[in-house]
Amino acid sequence: MSVSRFFVICAIYCTYSTSALAEFDNDLAINLSTEAGYIDNFLFQPENEESTAFYRLASDLAFSAKSQQSAFSINANIATYLYANFDDDNHTDYTIIPKYQFKFSQNQRLHVSGLLLNDFTYRGTGLSLGQADQLEKGDIQETLGAIIGYEYGTKESQGRLNFDLTYHESEFTTRRTDTNRLDTEILALKSSFDYLLSGKTFLAFDLDYKIIDYPNDPLISRDSISGLIGVKWYTTVISELNFLVGYQNLSFEDSRLIDDSAFKWRFDYTWRPSDYTTLHIVSNRKFDETYRLISSYRLAQTHQIDVIHDFTESLSVLFAIGINNDEFITPQSSNDEDYLVAALELNYRYSERLSFKFAYDYKSLDANYGDIDFTQNKVGIGITLNL
Fold this sequence. Notes:
This protein is mainly beta. It has a domain at 290-387. The protein has helices at 2-19, 176-179, and strands spanning 25-39, 52-66, 70-83, 91-105, 108-121, 139-152, 159-172, 184-198, 201-213, 222-233, 239-252, 260-271, 277-288, 297-310, 315-329, 334-349, 354-367, 374-386.
């Protein structure tokens, strides 16, 4: 762990120290927000639902500094959540992402970024699905990561080439006796090549290789390799499309587990039929890391549609609906979980500094095992102040 942490810390340090050597045009944005609302099934239970009022206090900071050849930015978010009937689940999440990029020329750039993430997993979800009443509070996961990459070419080039080297490590800091087996270290190399066919249409190739290590459960340590081919289409500002299909293979280090493979895809489409409306559709399928104590890995499918419409310069609405399927795979069997999620958000900008929102969120689970199905409704009213 010490070597890996040194790699990450060095990458984050470089983003700061290198940027400090140049003359930059600086920009700073800070906003404060608060939200109050109601949750009708806080513990995600199939019956005997328990409700609570909730309060959220958050702050976002975005700093950027640009020069002719380089740019540095840092985005930081901290949010505190308080629950009237569940004091033990009060918590604070935070995310810090520094980024630095340097342009060698108009067509070549180097970028470095870091990630520090603290995330709360609610009782009745994730590790504790169907077991909310057996815990006193939710789980906390910490993630540390860094990316260094190189890009050649632009959207106007005949070809574009990208290489990214990524390192992530994560661990649950709660219930360590049970959760230490999910400590994860991932070293990944990703490359992509886009070749201009005509106009703004590119033939795209993606190749990913991951070394996924579980230090406290080496049985499920594995390598993953995937390849995708497809098109990227940027005809006008009205329409953008990325659609790639391919294959992913998992190879386990321990011979007691059987290697696996699956069809993989990535679909991302944006349509702007007017200046006031944007439609965004995303769909993907891939092998991913597990967040269940009894499974080795999971096959995840995600499909989501977002629609944003501006009624006026001050009033807008966001509607989103998504279907997620997770297949958790063990050496003996597999379990399927189907989630339906929906969100409705109405935003009103009173002034450049002050805005209001009304938000409604819905989530449901339909699983093919156990008595763990649930629905949850959440409503909230919020205020955001831009400083």
